User: Which sequence fits this backbone?
């Protein structure tokens, strides 16, 4: 309920006028609009995440994941789920994660990338990391994890070429 009160003067006399309005319908409409807006924003965020982290087949059983922008834990978790599902369904034997376009990464996201490489290995595939910039290298090394099973290449092109050479043999 909304009450609007006004003071009016008419012919030298003062009057107080109050108007009562039921705004329940308007409040419900606003709540519905906010819920729909939240759904649209979530759908747009999912689309942006999918478009900014495509999983591209470049050869038989070889997938490339080019990452661009900032990596945070939520994005790495989303990407990890997509990669693991695709590796399992496509029976890929190699996933190349290209971080050339990654501008920023925090320790949690770096740890998430390392966990993704371990999970890919558990599915029977291997992970290559390409395009590691100095700030990414520092973030990964700060985790004090073992990198023995992670192969890196300076560029995406050299990583793809190495995989294709190994596939020819």
Assistant:
């Amino acid at each position: 309920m909304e009450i609007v009160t006004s003071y009016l003067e008419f012919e030298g006399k003062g009057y107080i006028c109050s108007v009562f309005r039921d705004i329940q319908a308007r409040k419900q409409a606003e709540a519905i609009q906010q819920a729909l807006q939240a759904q649209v924003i979530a759908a747009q965020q999912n689309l942006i995440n999918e478009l900014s982290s495509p999983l591209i087949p470049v050869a038989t059983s070889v997938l490339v994941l080019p990452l661009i922008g900032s990596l945070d834990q939520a994005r790495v978790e989303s990407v990890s789920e997509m990669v693991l599902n695709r590796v399992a369904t496509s029976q890929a034997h190699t996933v190349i994660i290209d971080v050339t376009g990654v501008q920023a990464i925090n320790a949690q996201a770096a740890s998430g990338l390392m966990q993704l490489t371990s999970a890919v290995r558990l599915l029977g595939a291997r992970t290559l990391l390409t395009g590691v910039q100095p700030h990414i290298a520092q973030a990964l090394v700060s985790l004090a994890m073992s990198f023995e099973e992670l192969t890196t290449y300076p560029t995406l092109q050299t990583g793809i070429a190495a995989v294709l050479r190994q596939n020819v043999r």
